[in-house]
Amino acid sequence: MMPNVAFQLTWQQSLSDRGRACLPDDIVEGLPMNWFKSGDLLDRAFAVGIILKGLDGVLEVVGGVLLLVVSPTTIDQLSRFLTQHELSEDPHDFLATHLLHAAGSLTGSSLQFGAAYLLLHGVVKIVLVAALLRDKIWAYPWMIVFLVVFIVYQVYRMTFAFSIGLLGLTIFDVVVVWLTYREYGKQRANPDAARIDRHW
Prior knowledge:
Number of strands: 0
Order of helices and strands: HHHHHHHHH
């Protein structure tokens, strides 16, 4: 009786696989994404990295909007309030002193540049991440180019203003570029199979 059950399950799986392979593109497009239940560990790492980039983009848009609507004086007062306890314990605290310095240097033109930078950077990230999660093939090379440009800029910044945070961000971006390139190669080699696998 057991071999019969095993045969029946194998036969049903085979039919299911054939059915998936025969699905037309419009049905595959309409299926819900299933990034975390299919693929290998690197596919899941790609999905997590891309989602983190999308959340980063949302935070950048929020930050850009705040820079536009909140006055530099308010930002300076808020940063002093947030760091006063830490600075009372350690007047040379790295994070607190850098936050105060950054808030104090926000003036008219630098404030507008910061807001524009965050808004543009955040919106582009959100659009590219949304397209990647929907398996839009055009988004892969654009995401790679976008991240490489910022990696080059971050490496340039580190030559005169090194920070552990910027180094960590750069390493994370390099990993996401590699994962995106790998996923792009899979998509180009067999686009239908890659899309169907993630939808099931």
